[in-house]
Amino acid sequence: MLIDTHCHLISRRFSDDDLAKVIQRANLAGITRMVTQGTAEDDWESSLGLAAIFPESITVCLALHPSEVHTARANWQRQLEQLAITHSLAAIGETGLDYYQPVPEGMTENRRKALQREYLEFHFGLAERLGLNIVLHTRDRSGDASFRDAIAIAEGYAGRVRPVFHCFIGNQDQLRLAFDKLDALISVTGVVTFKNAGTLPETIAWCPVERLMLETDSPYLAPEPMRGKRNEPALMRHTAEFIAQLKRMDFEQLAMITTQTAEDFFRFPESMKNS
Length: 275
Description:
Blueprint (H helix, E strand, L loop, with lengths): L1 E6 L8 H13 L2 E8 L2 H13 L4 E5 L13 H11 L4 E9 L9 H22 L3 E7 L4 H10 L8 E3 L6 H11 L2 E4 L11 H7 L5 E3 L21 H11 L4 H15 L10
Parallel strand pairs: 1-2, 2-3, 3-4, 4-5, 5-6, 6-7, 7-8
Helix pairs in contact: 4-5, 8-9
């Protein structure tokens, strides 16, 4: 019924013994598939291994997260490309630009931004070569420079690689820019349910439902009324129900449309659809 389009199931906050129960709870809550993100070199094989254990429930995206650029090994691009060629990925991701985290010791702000942009270009090129779409992370301490820089890079691949801006917390002007220039999608987390969500609920109410996907970003960002606890895919039901109310539509209709959007974006084979 629903697809959690962005979670981190190999996080240390999910123990090996707990994962089967996490997936079972998700299925009972109507979450039929989860797209887990392998975002660091040491996570890639583990993410693929998890999908091999739970093929009916878990699909994988792989990339180097922008906060990991300073730790990347010399052969990371070759390793990622080889894994992407030999395994069936849902998309390239989570990649992007992060101007929020502190600058790593020994690196200047300008160097970090340049390296992140260089690596994002690589991810877009890899997605294009493999016929995949891309999952983008953008975050700033203030303003929206990472968002606009990501759009500038994505424009070079418009019409060939479709991006989704995950954990979107921006405004209508940003949405219009992403939609008009890139035909982009956004995915929404439990942040939209927070009491201090600002204008985000209004923005999501305005956003065309065909542009939306749903996610948990678990184990982070548990929605109300579970805020502050470890998030997991089953809790996405709270976010979905909240958004259905925001948009004044039936929950079943929201579930059907967002599921179809996710299946198309991640190019799931027929065997994975509506499972």
